[in-house]
Amino acid sequence: MTAFIWRFPLFFLGLLLAIRAFTAFSLDSVPAAAWIHVWINGVLADAVALLMVSCLLALGCLSSRPWFRWVVSGVVIAVVLIVAIAEVFFWFEFQARLDRLVFHYLAYPVEVLVFLEEQFYLKWILIPFALIVVLLARLLAEPPELSLRSVAVVWLGAGIAAWLSGQPVIEQSRLLTQLASNGYVGILTAARVNETRWNGLFPGVTPAREAFKAEPSLPPMVSVDAKHVVLIIEESFAGKTWEDPKERALHLPAFSALAGEGLRFDNVYAAGTRTTRGMESILNGFVPLPGISATERKGFERLPSLPRAFRDHGFKTVFAYGGWPGFSNFTPYWQGIGFEKTTSRYDFPEGTFETSWGVSDRDLFAHVLGLMDELTLAAQPIFLSTLTVSNHRPFVVPSGEANAEQRSLQAAMRYADSALGWFFAEARKRNWFDDTVFVVIADHAPRIYGDSLIPVESYRIPMLLISSPEVQPAVITERGSSTGIATTLLSLFHLPTKEQFWAPSLLDGQDGPVWIEHDYHVGELLNDRLTILARGGRFYQWTVAGHQFTPAGEIAADTLESRRIVERFSQAHEVLYPR
Fold it and tell me: pTM higher than 0.90 for the full model?
């Protein structure tokens, strides 16, 4: 029995060490001076993780029944293996440890299990996985029976370690900070964060007391006399395939052609790395709060709202979607901010091609065409928004499409581009086409890269604005945020609003502020500086040249940039959590 007491820790710590070594070797380079910080903090994080897992084992060891202790041991080993697999997947997908996203997925078990089955064929690996768990349990020996005092000591140690543990910023580097952590500490950090309390995230940083003032906008460079708006939010339609002109021309021919027909925005940034962040930014024109998006919090109805602004001016507001209606609180959120009609995957005919996330882009666009044909029969103007899902794991596209068998990001992006081109080709045949402003924008990039605490290097996304024949082709190079779309559209139509959108128009001819969030860090990109208020209350800055970001070190809390970022984000926090 005593063999278990040293075998299990060796197995557990060895597994965490192997994962850290794997993640370290996956990086291009790790500065030699940073290694000592990475490994010291890594050892501490792994010790905390061991204590957390030992709490579960210790409870099982209170029993005098050997079979019960074996069962608990097997369950814990299974959890450890699942976490290890998830860690590797997260690193490949996000270059990060497990984080608050785990809790989001646990809130939607049906949708997530459907996705996992389609992506990883769960039913085929359950039996081999169970056999591995049994084998490991036998190798680690029988768990001992422990006294209540011994279990209490383990729990006390785990509690103290959990209270003291954290994820310190290392060398102002996102990747090194993540490398020095592990999934258990990442989940623990997310679990104990109270997002409703400003000081729980940024202790010692005093929230601003000033009343909110919107960023000023200059008169727009463009105006339109169109009647309708179609806003197309493309899932993950960004990244290096779009950023490289040669790759874009090769894999995104439809988008490239459309870019020559209207305004092409080449310097727009997303607010975060998830679709809910895209919604919050595009539809609410709102600053991204640290933690989960405001779209999933109580009180999201208090946010400024683009559909509500259009509805106040007599527009019929519709959100056309082909995915799960309840996932990420989508349908309640859309209805709560002013969309009068919403659709989901349940509104499509039986037999429509769909993946675990929703119907194919071409079927969704056919649905949008039908809605516009029907709704424009009346005299009422239309504001219709839609969200695609094909360019998302598991990257399954209808058979017969080019490279359909590849199940790769690039193949899915080519299909999404093809479906977008088909939509515009069909829309041109409609009477309502020339009366419509079309906006195409990505919600976020497909993968994050870059080493700043907020990887803003990977936040740049494409945007097109097409209104034939009123808007002449041009390239907009001024920096802006997807948060500015609401102001941009309303200014195009010369529509006043009582909604308090935060960002200026993207068409006022000057660089605007970009507000961003990642892993409870919040930041502002303004002029040639990226300023970040990190979880815990420290301020860091990067210099910006083009799309390159260079660390400039920690800065004081009383600088102009520090005060500005506190003012903006604390004001946004108070919108949802009034004092």
Answer: yes
